[in-house]
Description:
The structure holds two protein chains of two kinds.
Chain A (H helix, E strand, L loop, with lengths): L2 E5 L2 E5 L4 E8 L3 E9 L6 E6 L5 E4 L2 E5 L3 E6 L8 E9 L8 E2 L3 E6 L1
Parallel strand pairs in A: 2-11
Antiparallel strand pairs in A: 1-3, 3-8, 4-5, 4-9, 6-7, 7-8, 9-10, 9-11
Chain B lengths: L4 E3 L2 E4 L5 E6 L6 E8 L3 E9 L2 E4 L8 E7 L2 E6 L8 E8 L6 E3 L3 E5 L1
Parallel strand pairs in B: 2-11
Antiparallel strand pairs in B: 1-3, 3-8, 4-5, 4-9, 5-6, 7-8, 9-10, 9-11
Amino acid sequence: EDQVTQSPEALRLQEGESSSLNCSYTVSGLRGLFWYRQDPGKGPEFLFTLYSAGEEKEKERLKATLTKKESFLHITAPKPEDSATYLCAVQARSSNTGKLIFGQGTTLQVKP
Amino acid sequence: DAGVIQSPRHEVTEMGQEVTLRCKPISGHDYLFWYRQTMMRGLELLIYFNNNVPIDDSGMPEDRFSAKMPNASFSTLKIQPSEPRDSAVYFCASSLGVPTEAFFGQGTRLTVV
């Protein structure tokens, strides 16, 4: 069964304290792995798509990496405005559909 | 483009009533998805359409739920009759083909009392 597990569930950082969020996945052929950011009361906002192991994407203080079993979202020198829930999702090749399977998310709080 | 537009933003209804949620996808997107988000189960796919045709409705919890997409710019998700356990945030998303990223609306927070 296709599955996505994110860790930790919650993370508290001081402003400027770099860290990483983990997304482990089990899928019958990966078509794509997606990272989203969700603020309270809002819909998920797209951040990155990764397609193959070894691929990396960067945007401001965020960098996403992908291996055959997991993805990391690295946050460098975070700011309070980076506080949000970060969601990871996968799309399986075998399903031949657009279905996204989401993890439960990591809630990040960055304190000034 | 204004993005994916959902209405209403909030809905409070009594158990047994019919509820209709609405979605306008991004123009030109040929995939439309309905998700439900709860604390316990996270984001779950209910149903999705490709070119207005329902492709996978295996996530629809039961016959009380139905979804339609009469044209490329409009979709509805209906719950009849509604139950308290249907309380959740319902999201609509659209994408331009697969595998590409899906863009989400702001959601409809449904409360069934």
